[in-house]
Structure formats: structure tokens, C-alpha cells
Amino acid sequence: MARYLAMRVAQSLFTVFLIVSTVFVLVRLAPGDPAAAIGGPTATTEDLQAIREELGLVGSIPHQYWHFITGLVQGDLGLSYSFRQPALEVVLDRLPYTITLAGAAILLTALIAIPLGIFTARRANSSWDVGANIGTIAGQSMPEFWTGIMLLTLLSVVVPIFPASGFTSWSGLVLPAVTIALLQIALISRLVHREMAGNLAAPFVTVARSRGVAERALTWRYAFANSSIPVVTALGTRFAAMLNGVVVVEVVFAWPGIGSLVVRALETRDYPLIQATVLVTSLLAIGVQLLVDLLYPLFDPRVRVGKAVSR
Amino acid sequence: MTLLDVQDLQVELMTTGGVVRAVDGVSFTVGRSETVTLIGESGSGKSTTAMAVQALLPRNLAVVSGRCLIDGVDVVARPKEAAKLRGRTVAMIPQDPMTALSPVSTIGRQLGEVLGRKDPSSSRAARQNQAAELLDSVRITDPRHRLDAYPHQLSGGMMQRVLIAMALAIDPHLLVADEPTSALDVTVQAGILDLLMDLQDRTSAGILMITHDIGVARLVSDRVHVMRDGRFVESGEVEAVVGAPQQDYTRRLLDAVPRLGAWEGE
After folding, report:
1. Interface with chain A: mutation pick from B61, B104, B147, B155, highest number of A CBs within 10 Å
2. What is the pLDDT of residues B170-225, one digit of tens each?
3. What is the CATH T-level fold of the domain A97-267, as seen in this structure?
4. Could you tell me which chain B residue has the CA closest to the CA of A206?
5. From A63, A79, A257, B121, which residue has the greatest number of CB atoms within 10 Å?
6. Is the CB of residue B183 less than 8 Å away from at least one CB of chain A?
7. Per the CB < 8 Å rule, is A204 touching B96?
8. If we measure between CA atoms, which residue out of A14, A7, A17, A4 comes closest to residue A279?
9. How far, in Å, CA of A13 to CA of A34, rounded?
10. B115 → chain A, closest CA residue
11. Which CATH superfamily hosts domain B2-89+173-255?
12. What is the ipTM of this complex?
């Protein structure tokens, strides 16, 4: 187990290294010049050159990359051009906001999607099922920017219940979290429905029913326990994706998280900030994935590693 | 005494191809210590009959009519009562033991669940003891150790023994055995049938056996009903039906059994 864990962590770190390196090269290949962004339209060629030297953007890309990597291993990702602060600090300041939003959204998703999927799976082809089907297809089809703006209009402009933007009180969390969750509920509840419908029709449920096991236990202890792996995987993957910044929703609600930071970093060609954001979010996303993988054995005895199997 | 009294049972199944009459008016009885076998090829309606008797057919997909009394309770007319009988007076041995146990909980837990339902006041330790005894009685070696095993860690034959132990835990009046050996190795089949017969001797349960294997039918049955297209084409004492089949269909079923003997050639 320790060996397996060490190997998985090493693999994950290597993946992060590849991602960070790729991004390093890509931002430099993309059109746009940070010096021009800082200097503005009136800057002369000499001004731009001076800015580039100040930012350490002179020399070949391999040379800059070497400089970046040596900084990276020391935990130094450079100063953000626009914030004039260490880029890593800027990202870490914003991170709690994104984690809060993603956590709230995924919790809301799990709390609604799982019971909804189970409920409709137990009533296949009933009007409840059809209604939920229509609802989830609608939920899947609504883009987040539209849902967000609609919720804003309805619940903070027309009927001012929730604040429109920012995170000054906990009520500010409601609208962005609901906006993200609406789409996720639609996706996850359909997955839960599909898994549950399959397991409720499985022979082991029928045989357990023949032993007199109550319907409630058949639903949870038999069918749901066997559906949990794909559901946990999907929730974990979605959560990891949200940690990369829920860009659209953060921009719509002016949420001070990673997503809105990324937009600003890209607009200003703030290379250190882009790199720091990518490093932190990919570390988090891969960490969550790893955690989900390590949780599998809790849900499914068949994937337990290194346990003596007797036949 | 009659445990199971089926009169004019009909089952219609909703399939994608339309409504199919899977069981078309069958009548039979099973008494105490008696083994009655329904034999027929795939699709003859024998398994559907077994499921209908336990009221286990999904209600939105199957329409059951006729009369089916278990211990005097009509399970067709009163499916709620049937749910109470399951796991108390009726137990089932399923067709494929490999898919019949939940993959994510231990043998001990699934067996303990049956025992807990029977006697809710019993302690966990008492249930574990009782479960180990049951596994021992179905000739599973090292029963205490096996309680912690998951289904995927057992062989098919062993899982079928576990399922028989679960049925035994219920102490049923009526045991429905739906092709209990067809998914198992030939070498294991005899042991499982032997165990079932032994169990019947001890508990004097009635057995409704479903099989397509005339050898199995011959070995265990008191009476057989030969089923085809949802109807009984021939019924009677096992030796009479097997020894002197009246129907062409029965004769063909008998002829389908491979025999050991000298190769006769062309």
C-alpha cells in the first residue's frame, strides 16, 4: 500500500510538472506582449525593452525556462506584474474563495442530485420520472452565464433577497453556488438514476428481496452501495474541475476567486501570475483525483490492493 | 399438507415486442417434504412461474392472474402479504450464484441480516456464531474465516452453498430452487443437489425445482411437470414421465441428454 501510494504521488507530481512546463511555453508562444500591456500605447521601443529587462523576459525561452524551474523548486514563482506582489501569494489569497464556492456547489449538488436520482430510478416511467427528465435536460442545456444572470435579475434585482456580487456575507455565496449546482445536479442526477436503475434490476437485489429484505434497505444498502463508485468518481472529478476556477460564474458574480483572477492575469499577460495559478490549481485538481482514487477501496472491496485473497 | 397450491396461473409480460403470455394457465401443488419439478427448455415459462409464485415479478412489467396459495395466503390477490411471506416461509435458491450476492458486503454481513430479521433481539456475536454454524452445515470449511470474505473471493459452488445457508437460516416451508445448478461445474452440481436433499430431510420443506436438466429432475423429484410455451404438456410421477413419456416433446427432451457409451459410428 505504501509503495502504491508513493508511486501514485510521484506520478501526480510528474503530471503537474508537465502541465506547468506546457503552460510556460504556451503563454510565451501566444500573441500579446506583457511589456506592451504594462507600457501602454504610448511606450517607445526603448521603454518596452526596459520593461522586458525588468520583468526578466530577455534571453531565449530555454534560458527563461531554466530560470523559472530553479525558482519553482525554491517556491519562488516571481512577482506578479500587475499586483507587484509574489504571484504565489496573490493566488493563495484568492484560493479560499474558490474552495468555498466549489465546496458549497458540490455539497449542494450531492445533497440534491443523489436523492433525486434514486427517487426517479425507483419510479421509472412514472410522471415523476418524466418530469425530472425534462427538468434535468433543461438544466443541462442552460449555460451558466445565462442561469447566473437570470438568478441575479430575479433574486437580487427584482426581488432583492441576495447580494448581486462579491463575497461580503454568507448570503453572497447562495447565487453563485446555485448557478454552478443547477448544471451539476442535472448531470449527476442522471448518472445516479442510470446506476440505480441498473442495480435495482440486478439479480442480487431480487434475491435479497426474496429473502425478505425491506425495500428501503434494498435501495440503500444494496443498490446504492453498489452505485457509489461511479457517483463518487463523478463528484470528485467535477469538484476538481471547479477548483480550476469556475471562470464564468466568478466573473458574472464578481467572485474574488481563482477564476476571475485567471481572466485578469490573461488580459494583462501576467506570466508569473498565470503560471502560479496553473501550478496551484493543477496541484489541487490532481490531489483531489488522487484522494478519490485512494477512497475507492472504502466503497468497493474488489479494488482493495494488497489484501490477502482466500479462495 | 399442501404448502403451495397453484390454480390456473397466468402471467403476461410486457416486452419491447409487445405483450407475451409467458405462463398460460398452469396448476400444480407442492406438499411438505415433497419435491416438484418444472422442466422445460429456455423460454418455456418455468422461471417466470417460479418468480410469480414468490410475487417477485416487477409489477409494472408483469400481469399475474389466477390463484396461488402459500400456506393458505393468496399471493396473487394480496402481494403485500406475499412480501411478508418472503424470507419467513418462502426462500429462493437463485440460478446464478455469482450475481446473487451484493458484491460490496461480506458474507457474514449478508447472512447476519437474514438472522437479524428472524430474531431482532439477538446480539451481533450470537448472529456471527449462528452464521458460522450455518456455513458449517452447508459443508463450507473454515466457516469463521469465510464470514469476513466478500463474494468475489469465493468460487461459484461455494457461493451457492452460502445462498443455501441463507435459505436454511430462514427455515422455510417452501424452497424455490430456480435452476440451482445450471451455472455450476458438473463436478459441483452433484454436491449442491445432495445438500438440497439433505436440507429437505432435516427441515421437511417442500421444494419447487426449476430445471432444464432431465438428469437433475430424475434425481430429486417426486413429481414432474413438463412445460412448453407456458403450458404443462405432461405431468406425473417422475419415473412414469421419464420411463414412458407420452408426449413427443418429453421424448425429445430425454433424447437431448448425452449418454455415455460406446461410439456407434455411422
Report:
1. B104
2. 888 999 999 888 888 888 888 888 888 888 988 889 999 999 888 888 889 999 99
3. MetI-like fold (1.10.3720)
4. B56
5. A257
6. no
7. no
8. A17
9. 29
10. A211
11. P-loop containing nucleotide triphosphate hydrolases (3.40.50.300)
12. 0.86
